[in-house]
Amino acid sequence: MSHAATETKGARGPAAAVAGAAGAVPPTGVKRFREARVAWIFLAPFMIAFLLFLVWPILHGFYLSFTDQSLTGAGGGFVGGANYAEAFGDATMWRSLANTVLFTLMSTVPLVAIALVMALLVDTGLPGQWLWRLSFFMPYLLASTVISQIWVWIFNPSVGAANELLRAVGLEPIAWLQNESTNLTAIVIATVWWTIGFNFLLYLAALQNIPGHQYEAAELDGAGKLRQVWSITLPQLGPTTVVVLILQILASLKLFDQAYQMMGGISSDTTRSIIQYIYEAGFVGYRFGYSAAISYVFFAAIIIVGILQAVLLRQRKAEK
Amino acid sequence: MSTTIETPDPVADPPGTARPVKGHRVVRSSRMAGAKRFSGLRIVAFAALALMAVGWLLPFLWAVATAFKTETDAALGGLDWIGESGATAEAFVSILSQGNIWVWAFNSLWTSVAITAITVFISAFAAYAFSRLDFRGRRWMFVVILASIVIPPQVLIIPLFYQMLAFNLVDTHWGLILPQVVMPAMVFILKKFFDAVPIELEDAARVDGATRFRIFWSVVLPLSRPILGAVSIFVFINAWNNFLWPFIVINDTLLMTLPVGLQTVISAYGVQYAQIMAQAVLASLPLIIVFLLFQRQIVKGVATTGFGGQ
């Protein structure tokens, strides 16, 4: 996994290339001992928090997944792989996983493609730069609660703006969030609006790192603006797109906040994400052991995605 | 809105990048030349951009419009921007006078500031040790921290809650803050920055007899202001908007953060759309104002940190 991280970072331009050139000075003897002591003092606060709030919960959660621990304090006995066996035979677990994957597929494509279009348009240098940035990035600054309330209002089946618009153009209104065939789509729409600003900024930053002289050269050769975008800009955005895609897929797989809140906390078979199921099993059903087991199934899925991405990245690199 | 602090920023402005001329107009000079020319393509691009911007602003503007309606007008629906009985600030007044919104806003502010301060502080010290100091286990420890970036915090809610129960921190602000201060990605980002700081600067201070702490505190940290700012912005936005963990660990209404508190009001108000939109708008204002004031820094900060792995 660490490889995937390093490699994507490596694609970040000159700043990254400088990194790593300067390392620690290799001291010897007493000096080295003293430096190690200073190092441990510098490291201690972070490492203590790291061990306490990350390493320990990971290990303890793994242990809990083999017990029948309850939130009420009851249970706690070792049950072997029973929780995992139950999870793999649990239709609701599979359904939640399928919802999460479906949401990821539905949201990732528009979140990357539209963000790219936005960034390309803003990078043309058209007047009104601050307004474009504000429009596209502002929703990202809103809390999940706020965007959920706004979209629940817009998707209100009787008086919401979405249906008023549909009626205005002569279409039938839709019970967006109440209908099981449309509620995930409604959540995808709200999510695209909410989080696109992040991808937009990543693309914008990448675009501004493309040296201007390349465009000058192309212009001298008589290449039009569209031609320049096609042959200079887009090819150079390849590495950025890989990073944006990876971050987006990982973010989409962690769906919970907006889906849970837009549905008003209701557990619908078509919108329940895997994290919502973890939450429900643990804090509604009080089954900590079972909930921990599902957490690990999800964690394993994330790792598999991560390994796949690392392999793909390596292949890309090898091709170059 | 042109609050430009012209400090050198080696991270967001790698050598070879043309510095933006002034304020918020980040445009390369070469493209400016082409930009001045009148062309059909530019008109199409402008129209597309304007259309998208309007589309993206509409949902929020619609919430603002609803918030300024009377409850009766709001419940009528329709697509009018101003209700039949005209615009009114009634909804805002009742939210501000009766609700807990002030308490939640304060809770959000102080816990987010605490999370940001602690995270940046402990991550910077650790990152410096990994970047410049020599100690046994430096390599593998850094690899472990790097690998832990992939752990989704959401899978830890069960054991973390269990731990908070044991520490007696459930339903306290420290229970909310502490688990959020471990952000391995920030250590990675800061280490990469420290690696690129010229070592000669530190050597000079060392010749003068400065201790490691002194070198770090008065030579390296001041040089790192841009990256520290970027990391802080990123951590703060995430902490301010975090929902799942505060939702789980806090039950007391008066200890809730803004996102969690607002969510409890939906059911209490029933169908009072104007009031719900008023509080949604109010809750969004702080970050929107901060964004308007520091747009350039935030845009850079998010891009820099975002690429560093979230």
TrEMBL record, chain A:
UniProt membrane topology term: Multi-pass membrane protein
Chief site of localization: membrane
Keyword NADP: no
Keyword annotations of the record: Cell membrane, Membrane, Transmembrane, Transmembrane helix, Transport
Location of this chain's protein in the cell: Cell membrane
InterPro entries registered for this protein in UniProt: ABC_transporter_permease, MetI-like, MetI-like_sf
Annotated transmembrane regions: 38-59, 101-122, 134-154, 186-207, 228-253, 293-313
Segments forming domain ABC transmembrane type-1: 97-309
Protein family (similarity comment): Belongs to the binding-protein-dependent transport system permease family.
PANTHER family to which the protein is assigned, alphabetical: ABC TRANSPORTER PERMEASE PROTEIN, DIACETYLCHITOBIOSE UPTAKE SYSTEM PERMEASE PROTEIN NGCF
Protein name: Sugar ABC transporter permease
Organism: Zhihengliuella salsuginis
TrEMBL record, chain B:
UniProt domain ABC transmembrane type-1: residue ranges: 105-294
Gene3D superfamilies: MetI-like
Topology term for the membrane: Multi-pass membrane protein
Location of this chain's protein in the cell: Cell membrane
Pfam families: BPD_transp_1 (PF00528)
InterPro entries according to UniProt: MetI-like, MetI-like_sf
Ranges for region Disordered: 1-21
UniProt keywords, alphabetically: Cell membrane, Membrane, Transmembrane, Transmembrane helix, Transport
Sequence intervals crossing the membrane: 41-62, 101-128, 140-162, 174-194, 215-237, 274-294
Keyword Translocase: no
CDD domains registered for this protein in UniProt: TM_PBP2 (cd06261)
Matching SUPFAM superfamilies: MetI-like (SSF161098)
Family in the record: Belongs to the binding-protein-dependent transport system permease family.
Name this protein carries in UniProt: Sugar ABC transporter permease
